[in-house]
Write the structure tokens for this entry.
Amino acid sequence: MVTYDHYLEEPGNLEIEYFSTLGTQRSGNDFHAYWVEFEYGAKAWWTTELYLDGQSTFGDSSIFTGFRWENRIRPLQHEHFINPVLYIEFEQINEADKIIKEVEGHDVESDHSVPNALARQDLDHELELKLLLSKTFKGWNVALNPLATKNLLPSDPWEFGYAIGASRPLALKASPNPCNFCRENLIAGVEMYGGLGDTQSFGLHETSHYLAPAMAWNLPSGWTIRVSPGFGLNDNSHRLLLRWGVSREFSGFGEMVRRLFGGHP
Amino acid sequence: MKDFLWPRRALFQFSVVVIAFAISFVVAFAQSTSNTMAEGDHLHHRHYTELAKVPARARNRHNPLEGDSDAVAAGGKLFEHHCAECHGHTAEGDRRAPSLRTREVQLATPGTLFWLLTNGVVRWGMPVWSKLPEPERWQIVTFLKSLPSNAQTFPQAAGHGRSQ
């Protein structure tokens, strides 16, 4: 959900996802944050994504909170013992954003208690860099994502965070017959993510951390459903972040567009 | 608090990002459309040369599912789901990806095909498939080795295993 492995979108495929986070808030109203994501496999080594974020805070309002443009680039041609992918994202998100795509710097639960009308006026332009390290062995994928974020205001420090996760399909062999609800289509995992402070105060303190089991169901028709309840590990964290997403992959989208503009099959 | 610039400035910056996203799409799209059929043949030749680059140790790996009819059917199902979009539903290839029924592929060892499946040919557009568990990759290899070389029909078992 938060941790990325090193696998990119297949070239020419478009994936559209609706993803949401339902969060509890101790000193304020609970909220429901969501995004719509468009992920396109531009090349076998390059995936580009556009996110549109919004949120509804119960007893307050629903607002559009910003957008992100994410790029993942695979620098190495072959599989290695550990596989790196470079992640570069530009985001223009206001302070009312609550999707918690990752935890960075000194992000804490109380950041989300500010009323929407006030929080939305504070607009951030951020550059986010991640190194996605991932390894698949005997069906298990283990991934580690250190991240660094810089608000483009010169006065703001670099902020840091991490995500680490492991996942595995429930069956390693495909059954010979077509099936939807079979073990090979289900993936279970667990992840942990949190902040690491900033250049002025680095470390695990004064930030939030989460532990989240996760489950994904990949349907042969191209639909995927993901669910993950995340549990806050300290007093700075939300007690519960219930995340879920539904996505549809359109294979050969690039080819469809090509034909639309008169390309030959 | 910063100046209240939302939404006019935000709208402009959002437009810039959407345009950049669209440009990246068009660049990738334009490069793929510039491949004419003749160039496609050349590209496919490049794919086949990758077979010779597989390390000897990987080439000699034994297929643990060899002769398993269930593996052929399951491999056919996986092929339809993950590979047919580019290699064609009959594995005879199309503009984007080469035929897997050619002599080059059919004479390749199972270990060679497994290695290429695992590592992809990222430079020429084939993604890595190590996200599929190792037994599933062997199932696909078993299916590929069951295909007749440049023949007209699919084997019965493969047809049985296809999901669509």
Summary: Chain B touches chain A through 54 residues (CB under 8 Å). Residues 1-5, 33-38, 151-164 of chain B have pLDDT under 50 and may be disordered.
